[in-house]
Design goal:
The complex is a heterodimer.
Chain A: E1 2-5, H1 11-18, E2 25-32, E3 36-37, E4 40-49, H2 51-68, E5 73-79, E6 81-84, E7 88-96, H3 99-116, E8 119-125, E9 129-133, E10 143-144
Parallel strand pairs in A: 1-5
Antiparallel strand pairs in A: 2-7, 3-4, 4-6, 4-8, 5-7, 8-9, 9-10
Helix pairs in contact in A: 2-3
Chain B: E1 2-6, H1 9-15, E2 19-23, H2 30-40, H3 45-50, E3 52-55, E4 58-60, E5 71-75
Parallel strand pairs in B: 1-5
Antiparallel strand pairs in B: 1-2, 3-4, 3-5
Classes of the chains: A alpha+beta, B alpha+beta.
């Protein structure tokens, strides 16, 4: 199951999606909005995505994880829109007969999601500036928070 | 041929819009789109060199020929998770 959502990620529902008598292990990873990055204070985050492509890439990740590991079930939910500190931006849950498989598949899913799925994060800094995060890209100085 | 390119994140911010229309020769490639985008919108020139592009909902490399009426997207380095 993969989903993009504008609202709070319901972790109980995510876990319910992957629970099964066939599983002996369930791993849940949450990515959450962090207050400090390299000493700079964040006030909030905004995420946007290319919906059709992001959904397709998430579904491909699930299919590839199922091909690589004997998992029972998998759920990936990514939030888009505005997030306050501490809120979950992403949930990855995997169930498998044994824990090693669940950990390995979950780790691969979140690592690969961060490389290939067209979703972007904007840091809204506590000092009022904001900036889209594009790893590896040299950008001009921070844009003003109110310029879009 | 006319193509439309969806813009996201810093690309959308720099261009001040979420989609651009460009004229390309029939049979143009993603590499040529990369160049044309920078020519038409100089504010995107640097980004266009480093972004990925998608035809429809699939990543495409510079040698990919752009089909007529393709749905294109400029995909700056992603930062989900």
């Amino acid at each position: 199951m993969v989903e993009l959502t504008q609202t709070t990620i319901d972790t109980a529902e995510v876990l319910r999606c992957v629970s099964s008598p066939a599983a002996g292990a369930v791993v849940l990873f949450l990515g959450t909005a962090r207050e400090f990055t390299a000493g700079r204070r964040t006030a909030s985050l905004d995420y946007e995505c290319y919906p059709a492509m992001a959904e397709k890439k998430l579904a491909e990740l699930e299919a590839e994880a199922r091909r690589r590991w004997p998992i029972v079930a998998c759920a990936i939910v990514h939030r888009v829109g505005h997030l306050d500190l501490g809120e979950a931006s992403v949930a990855v849950a995997v169930s498998a007969p044994h824990r090693h498989t669940a950990f390995e598949a979950g780790r691969w899913l979140i690592d690969t999601l961060k490389e290939v799925v067209p979703i972007w994060k904007k840091e809204n800094w506590a000092d009022g500036a904001s900036k889209w995060v594009h790893p590896g890209l040299t950008q001009p100085n921070d844009e003003c928070a109110n310029d879009e | 041929m006319k193509v439309r390119v969806k813009l996201f994140a810093v690309a959308r911010q720099l261009a001040g819009r979420d989609e651009l229309e460009l004229s390309l020769p029939a049979g143009a490639t993603i590499g040529e789109l990369r160049h044309a985008l920078g020519e038409q919108s100089p504010e995107l020139a640097s980004l266009a060199q480093h972004a990925m592009f998608a035809v429809g909902t699939e990543y495409a490399d510079d040698r990919t020929t752009i089909p007529e009426n393709a749905d294109l997207a400029c995909i700056p380095p992603v930062s989900g998770g």
